[in-house]
């Protein structure tokens, strides 16, 4: 089963699209681990993760219905 | 006459539901600081002036260049080379001469932030770099000033409202660890769609107006992202990030090294001389040998934990955050790489290294016996 991940800002340059589908993992930590294997450059970037439109600061259980967003800081003005 | 003039100027907004004379009065009495009058600051400033905010402060030390003009819509070709803050003030005076505009033609930094920010009710972060963003955030947290944050990247922009109530989340909850220099491209490197800064600057003005007048709902504790290519908004709720390495008062704020925090300057590593090291052994310090497994000489009397540099990152849990930690290698070179990593990636402050390495200490031992 797949899960949808929304990718914002310059992170989309790494993933190649701003909406990607990845096989569902049990939690955000294993999902992130898998994404870093798929897109190694993500490892060098700081970003925050939102699950169902709420930013998480610890490992969080995810479901196929969960909406994940990877949000990097923007610097420009 | 004067009153009629004012009535006419604001007539179209004063008849809005929930707005009226009270909201107009609150705007007239409000003091709003705009830090950065570039792509975000120009529209924010214009709309705050037009709606009748009584006192506006402008901080910007930059001069206008030709490549600014596509999005910094207060300026024209003939303004190139002049200070943005000065030109912005002139343009606002043309829009509405009765607005008080205070200009600070300088970059906001640690030394001037408190004296400037403290004069205002609300702050708009319209800057273009992370270091200034963290400085503004921290000063606003300490001074308890509501902060309307805006930022842009290519076809996307972000808006959030921080510190709108005591204990509310702020920029460090959103991004506790700053991006390294070069990690996030700026407008100069990545390009910027002018509509994005126009929309985001306007949204920032809108949040400030709502904070002042109390109408509507403020984007407090939320991060909104705008995508101009999809014409879509995406809003997420920000959660407190837990204990943060943030200065809590004016004194610690002044001592805080934002260059080191943002990776603009390398750490001054704490060096332990061979003599100091000899005195510290066995006195509650944790000693880490980062040489390779089979590297000689053996120094078993130090009771050092062996974690070769190559696997230090994976074995970070073995380092005791409660103790002073001294790393050593053969000659004190590899430990500098290790300290860079421990300080940059893990923000450890309790780490030092043996200057000159283990050979220096053995040398010292042999000369003192």
Task: Give a structural overview.
- The complex is a heterodimer of chains A (77) and B (369).
- Chain A is an alpha+beta fold.
- Helix content of chain A is 21%, strand content 29%.
- Chain A has a domain at 25-56.
- Chain A has a 5-stranded mixed β-sheet.
- The radius of gyration of chain A is 12 Å and the shape is globular.
- Chain A starts with a strand and ends in a 6-residue tail after the last strand.
- Chain B is built from 14 helices and 13 strands.
- Chain B folds into 2 domains: 2-261, NAD(P)-binding Rossmann-like Domain (Rossmann fold), CATH 3.40.50; 270-368, Oxidized Rhodanese, domain 1 (3-Layer(aba) Sandwich).
- The longest helix of chain B has 20 residues, at 194-213.
- Chain B is of the alpha/beta class and 369 residues long.
- In chain B, the strands form 2 sheets. Chain B has an 8-stranded mixed β-sheet with strand order 3-2-1-4-5-6-7-8, with helices on both faces. Chain B has a 5-stranded parallel β-sheet with strand order 9-13-12-10-11.
- Chain B is elongated.
- Chain B starts with a helix and ends with a helix.
- Chain B has helices at residues 2-14, 20-29, 41-51, 84-95, 110-117, 130-143, 171-174, 187-190, 194-213, 250-255, 258-261, 274-280, 334-344, 357-368, and strands spanning 31-35, 55-59, 100-104, 122-125, 147-153, 156-162, 222-227, 232-237, 270-272, 286-289, 305-306, 325-328, 351-354.
- Helices cover 37% and strands 17% of the residues of chain B.
- In chain B, β1 (31-35), α3 (41-51) and β2 (55-59) form a beta-alpha-beta unit.
- At the A-B interface, β4 of A face β5, β6, β7 and β8 of B.
């Amino acid at each position: 089963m797949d899960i949808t991940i929304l990718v914002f800002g310059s992170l989309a340059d790494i993933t190649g699209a701003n909406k990607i589908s990845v096989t569902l993992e049990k939690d955000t930590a294993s999902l992130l681990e898998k994404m870093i294997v798929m897109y190694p450059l993500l490892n060098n970037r700081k970003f925050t993760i939102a699950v169902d439109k709420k930013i998480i600061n610890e490992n969080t259980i995810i479901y196929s219905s969960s909406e994940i967003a990877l949000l990097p800081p923007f610097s420009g003005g | 006459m004067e009153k009629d003039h004012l009535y006419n100027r604001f007539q179209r907004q004063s008849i809005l539901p929930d707005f009226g004379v009270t909201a107009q009065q609150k705007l007239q009495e409000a003091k709003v600081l705009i830090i950065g009058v570039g792509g975000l600051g120009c529209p924010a400033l214009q709309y705050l002036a037009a709606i009748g905010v009584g006192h506006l402060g402008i901080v910007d030390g930059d001069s206008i260049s030709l490549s600014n003009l596509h999005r910094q819509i207060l300026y024209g070709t003939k303004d190139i080379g002049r200070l943005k803050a000065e030109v912005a003030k002139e343009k606002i005076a043309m829009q509405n001469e009765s607005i008080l505009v205070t200009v600070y033609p300088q970059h906001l930094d640690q030394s001037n932030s408190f004296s400037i920010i403290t004069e205002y009710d609300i702050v708009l972060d319209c800057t273009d770099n992370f270091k200034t963003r963290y400085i503004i955030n921290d000063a606003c947290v300490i001074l308890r000033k509501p902060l309307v944050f805006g930022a842009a990247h290519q076809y996307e922009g972000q808006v959030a409202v921080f510190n709108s109530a005591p204990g509310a989340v702020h920029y460090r909850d959103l991004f506790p660890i700053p991006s390294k220099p070069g990690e996030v491209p700026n407008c100069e490197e990545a390009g910027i769609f002018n509509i994005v800064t126009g929309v985001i600057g306007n949204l920032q003005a809108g949040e400030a107006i709502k904070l002042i007048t109390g109408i509507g709902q403020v984007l407090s504790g939320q991060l909104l992202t705008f995508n101009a290519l999809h014409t879509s908004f995406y809003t997420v709720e920000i959660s407190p990030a837990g204990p943060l390495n943030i200065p809590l008062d004016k004194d610690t704020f002044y001592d805080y090294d934002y260059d080191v925090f943002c990776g603009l300057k390398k750490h001054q590593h704490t060096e332990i001389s061979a003599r100091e090291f000899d005195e510290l052994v066995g006195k509650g310090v944790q000693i880490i040998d980062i040489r390779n497994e089979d590297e000689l000489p053996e120094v078993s009397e130090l009771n050092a934990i062996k974690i070769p540099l190559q696997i230090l990152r994976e074995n970070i849990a073995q380092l005791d955050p409660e103790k002073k930690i001294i790393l050593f290698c053969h000659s004190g070179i590899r430990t500098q790489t290790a300290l860079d990593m421990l300080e940059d990636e893990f923000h450890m402050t309790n780490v030092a290294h043996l200057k000159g390495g283990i050979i220096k200490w053995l040398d010292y031992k042999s000369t003192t016996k």
